[in-house]
Design goal:
With about 350 residues, the chain is an alpha+beta fold. It has 12 helices and 10 strands. Helix content is about 50%, strand content about 20%. Strands 1, 2, 3, 4, 5, 6, 7, 8, 9 and 10 form a 10-stranded mixed sheet that branches.
């Protein structure tokens, strides 16, 4: 049976190739779909790395996905303040770092005859590097005295350094922003553009929050709201203890009664990760259906070829039967032929 099946495949080479093509395309399609979905999911998750790991953000506005966003419930909430940050520093215990920071985009930095536009400026407190992914390629991070004295020092992104100091060392050089002069003490590692276009440090500049407040005196009127970021301990699974501690501390600081709703939001990167997981669960199901149809089409192709093969070899089957061939012998010829087509086509589709 094995030999007859193999001979039949070699004798009808064009039909064999067409059958293999159907199976190969089916297997390749299902592998390609799952590969693309997995690559997209990985790119999405890597694009969210800028939010940090095990970090809880205290903000006025909650991160909500799906349904109608109830903005009218949140618009009158107070924004987190520097005073609240300093109180939380004293009260919180289950954390490995915390910071307050302000962010403003659309700034233009200058140095000599060079300038670079659309720079994102961040005014930060000490410890910002513990809650955010700040990686320095050169220089140093802020020390406590830089923050306390609001020194005019800055850490700039790789693209900012390349734009202002092409082919030159950026450390120790002077940059200008809104009439203020800053000395560059650090340059961040180049990150490149993310898949989703999420914020990258390449076009960022970081300064002490005291200098930031001098430059933008009326922060709230300009729509610049501070964010408190607290990073949980590695031992705190899911940062549940930290979240509970922050909620209790914030309610106490703001004088909320037990029946009062929270007038602040505790946002976590896991919220976005959950949305991504749901999205790609749906894509995986869709991929399975698409791949299943591809395999089904390949299977129908083999079944159709086997039907044609049986019709063509009716005379040969009759001769084999007259010579004493059993039904199982004839059946196995076509089964082996189907198996060969499936294995070879599947192997080509995989590799």
């Amino acid at each position: 049976s094995f030999g007859f099946a193999w001979h039949a495949l070699k004798s009808n080479l064009m039909r064999t190739i067409l059958s293999l093509l159907g199976v190969t395309i089916g297997i390749f399609a299902i592998i390609a779909v799952f590969t693309v979905v997995d690559s997209l999911e990985k790119s999405f998750r890597e694009s969210m790395n800028f939010l940090g790991d095990k970090v809880i953000y205290v903000q006025k506005w909650p991160w909500e996905f799906g349904g109608e966003y109830a903005w009218w419930k949140y618009m009158n909430r107070p924004v987190p303040s520097l005073a609240e940050y300093k109180l939380l520093e004293k009260r919180l215990e289950n954390h490995q770092g915390m910071a307050i920071f302000w962010t403003k985009g659309g700034n233009t930095l200058k140095s000599g005859n060079n300038n670079i536009a659309d720079v994102t400026l961040q005014g930060v407190s000490f410890g910002f590097d513990q809650v955010s992914d700040v990686r320095l390629a050169d220089g140093r991070y802020f020390v406590q005295s830089d923050i306390d004295a609001a020194k005019p020092v800055a850490i700039i992104g790789a693209s900012v350094a390349e734009g202002l100091f092409p082919g030159r060392e950026a450390l120790g050089k002077e940059i200008k922003l809104k009439g203020f002069r800053f000395r560059v003490i650090g340059v961040m590692e180049k990150q490149g553009e993310s898949f989703l276009g999420t914020p990258s440090s390449d076009n960022n500049a970081i300064i002490p929050y005291g200098m930031f407040n001098k430059m933008f005196a009326s922060l709230s009127s300009r729509g610049i709201e501070p964010i408190l970021a607290i990073k949980g301990l590695k031992s705190d699974e899911g940062s549940l203890e930290l979240e509970s501690e922050i909620r209790g501390a914030m309610r106490s600081i703001r004088g909320l009664r037990p029946r009062d709703d929270d007038n602040f939001a505790l946002n976590r990167p896991e919220m976005i990760a959950g949305v991504i997981t749901q999205l790609f669960s749906v894509l995986n199901i869709a991929g399975t259906i698409i791949g299943g149809f591809s395999i089904l089409v390949g299977g129908f192709g083999i079944a159709n070829i086997m039907f044609v093969s049986v019709k063509e070899r009716t005379n040969l089957i009759g001769i084999q039967k007259s010579l004493g061939a059993k039904n199982s012998f004839i059946l196995f010829q076509f089964l082996f032929e189907s198996i060969f087509l499936s294995l070879i086509g599947g192997g080509v589709g995989i590799f």
